[in-house]
Design goal:
Chain lengths: ~375, ~170
């Protein structure tokens, strides 16, 4: 895996993927990325060949394996991309490679050459698992795939439509990878797809690459692809914000929406200030009558859970007086609160209404100083 | 509160309020009341408004936790301010603050052209910690910040109502 990292660095990728464990999905991305970048920098391709040749001799042919068994569109893309290579260059590339198993069938058609070349290239970046014997079989079958690809270039179209809505969903969520792809033949339709869907499955490991393909008729150089991916991320977030801020749904145009958002944030901040001013004015006469506060708040907006969480710890304490113990209780409960605070409190629903009713009953029954101290302890 | 969260409190019999906004509201309420109680004893009425506002922000930030950039920024500000107050080492704080600001200004210039200079800068000024992020991150931080501000306003309104009524 380090070799692929090195390779990526050679080709000036955006971010170095943190490659943890090899999987077929990841390998798919790997060779796609490699092939894409290789195609973008063809003159450098030969120069960099020795790099990965040196370290990756024994790399198995998982790439090819996954090529066959993986999603068909991946293979299609890589094949069609490779078809662009002029045959002599492809042959040159092929010849240069040190193929671990030399029992390749002699390539017959230029497409096969390119295909085999691509498949063999991919093998360099796979983790060395598969025996090289599988190479020939995979190559042969992959050559067949090229024919299919050439005959049916339209097949690439339906896939991305299903995946393009996934872009906006996936991009903010899962691990992202960025890939640059060279423009394929004009006849081939490109499709927008996020391979992060499949690729991010492996062990839930987050990888910083987003695989993005250009839509038809759009520029496909790396910069515009990157920009487009970023723009889509931004649009997704703007949509979220639009839902959050009331009245923003009807407005179209980023500038107006942003204005609305800014106004909303300012209004909320002003509201907080206003409320704090009122609280400051009201405060002196309040001795924090907490029982009414807690009961009412639990009824309205705040859930009962936190109260329930505290009450079972309080009642066993019995009658506790004195500031020191009160502060100790507060501190302890503060810590207890803080710990589940940073992670979701899943266990709180267990303590619900019975405790609260108990609390209110007891609070009314007990003597005033005791119950106020107990309620203070709750907080 | 118009939450975008799918869980509806009323339809979930087991976990009545486990959506993140109510969790945050709870935490914020507890901390805020804590702070208010402490404030009640100490501060004179003159500075009370400022301290309460600061306490609201601080308790909100600590309720959210260090996961979010804006809450981290608020906590940093508070700590820096307390350092400043206690140690009176102005030079150190200024250095910290200026270093942060210079690091933050590497926002993507392309974004500004895309969207509008004024708005992005305004937004950065509004959201705490907004200086040091890219535009995309700024948007997600803004979304979370809006949610938490709303929760804060609700809780404070509730508190106020109870105090003014009782």
């Amino acid at each position: 895996m380090l070799n692929s990292v090195r390779f990526a660095r050679n080709f000036g990728e955006y971010r170095v993927a943190s490659l943890s464990k090899p999987s077929s999905h990841f390998r798919n991305l790997d060779f796609r990325r490699n092939c894409a970048s290789r195609l973008t920098m063809e003159p450098k391709a030969e120069a960099t060949q020795p790099h990965f040749r040196s370290g990756e001799m024994g790399f198995g042919l998982d790439e090819i394996h996954s090529l066959i068994s993986g999603p068909p569109e991946t293979g299609r893309n890589s094949f069609t991309a490779l078809l662009e290579l002029p045959p002599p260059q492809a042959v040159q590339l092929l010849v240069k490679e040190d193929f671990p198993a030399k029992h390749l069938p002699p390539p017959i058609f230029p497409s096969n050459i390119g295909l085999i070349d691509r498949a063999s290239k991919r093998s360099f970046f796979a983790s060395a698992d598969n025996p090289p014997a599988s190479n020939t079989i995979l190559l042969a079958s992959s050559s067949m795939k090229v024919e299919i690809v050439k005959q049916e270039p339209t097949d690439s179209q339906p896939h991305p439509n299903s995946a393009s809505p996934a872009v906006s969903d996936q991009s903010p969520k899962s691990g992202k990878r960025k890939e640059r792809e060279k423009k394929v033949k004009e006849s081939n339709k490109k499709s927008k797809k996020v391979v992060a869907n499949e690729a991010s499955e492996d062990g839930g490991k987050k990888l910083p690459y987003v695989h993005v393909r250009a839509r038809r008729g759009q520029a496909t150089d790396s910069h515009s692809l990157a920009e487009r991916a970023r723009r889509e991320k931004i649009n997704a977030r703007m949509k979220l914000l639009q839902e959050l801020v009331p009245g923003c749904n009807k407005i179209s145009g980023t500038a107006m929406v942003l204005d609305e958002i800014i106004n909303h944030v300012q209004a909320l901040q002003r509201q907080v200030e206003f409320l704090s001013m009122r609280l400051a004015a009201v405060n002196p006469r309040i001795d924090f009558n907490l029982d009414a506060l807690l009961a009412a708040e639990s009824g309205s907006s705040i859930d009962n859970d936190y109260m329930g969480m505290f009450t079972p710890t309080i009642w066993p304490e019995g009658q506790i007086n004195g500031n020191r113990q009160l502060e100790y209780q507060q501190l302890w409960q503060g810590d207890e609160l803080r710990q589940p605070g940073w992670s979701r409190e899943e266990d709180t629903p267990n303590f619900i209404t019975p405790e609260t009713s108990h609390l209110s009953y007891d609070s009314s029954a007990n003597s005033a100083p005791l119950h106020s101290s107990q309620l203070k302890m709750e907080l | 509160m118009t939450t975008t969260h799918p869980k509806n409190p009323t339809t979930h019999p087991k976990n009545p309020t486990t959506n993140p906004s109510s969790v945050i509201r709870t935490r914020f309420a507890v901390r805020f009341l804590h702070a208010m109680k402490k404030l009640n004893k100490k501060t004179p009425p003159s500075r009370r408004y400022h301290t309460i506002r600061a306490a609201a922000c601080a308790s909100m930030a600590s309720a959210v936790g260090p996961r979010r950039a804006w809450s981290r920024a608020i906590l940093r500000k508070i700590r820096a301010r307390t350092l400043h107050d206690h140690l009176i080492h102005k030079s150190r704080n200024h250095r910290l603050i200026t270093r942060r600001k210079s690091a933050g200004l590497r926002g993507n210039p392309r974004d500004q052209e895309e969207v509008g200079f004024r708005q992005e800068d305004d937004l950065r000024g509004l959201v705490p910690g907004g200086e040091g992020m890219g535009f995309c991150r700024l948007l997600s931080e803004t979304a979370h910040y809006i949610k938490c501000l709303r929760a804060q306003v609700q809780v404070m309104t509730n508190i106020l109502d109870h105090y003014s009524s009782s």
